[in-house]
Write a structure and sequence with these properties.
The protein is of the alpha+beta class and 134 residues long. It is built from three helices and ten strands; from the N terminus they run βββββαβββββαα.
Length: 134
């Protein structure tokens, strides 16, 4: 992924050589500098990282963000008039624009960016570590 895929405020996963972990870390983008460098937040320390990626969107992430299941839209999720349709296994999520074109929302940061585009406010998870562990 490219740095310009992300906005300040997006929740992302990343690896950092100074932190030994086999699992990716989760942090918020707090500043963007050059093309491929993003600074992320981890345990109150600002880290410059080169290995950053999106977090796959899941039903657990949707619940953490405040989305509620909605049978009015088939297998869907609803938050503040933003509806996401899900496949039967809750593995793929789609947003349908006003012309009924489907947009696959594969990553959490894509949903955050879509929400900002529609509502002009951030979509924030209260506890991103809990959503990851689910």
């Amino acid at each position: 992924m490219k740095a310009n895929d992300f906005r300040v405020g997006n929740i992302v996963s990343y690896f950092h050589p100074a932190i030994e972990s086999f699992e990716p870390l989760i942090g918020h983008v707090i500043h963007k500098e050059e093309e491929d460098i993003i600074i992320a937040e981890y345990e109150d320390v600002n880290l410059r990282t080169y290995s950053i990626g999106g977090i796959f969107l899941t039903a657990d992430w949707l619940k953490e963000l405040g989305f509620k299941p909605s049978s009015h839209f088939g297998n869907g999720y609803l938050l503040n008039n933003l509806v996401l349709a899900a496949d039967e296994q809750n593995k793929k999520f789609y947003f349908f624009d006003t012309s009924k074109r489907a947009r696959h929302i594969k990553y959490l940061h894509q949903l955050q960016n879509l929400y900002f585009e529609i509502h002009e406010e951030e979509l924030i998870a209260e506890n991103p570590i809990r959503a990851k562990a689910s």
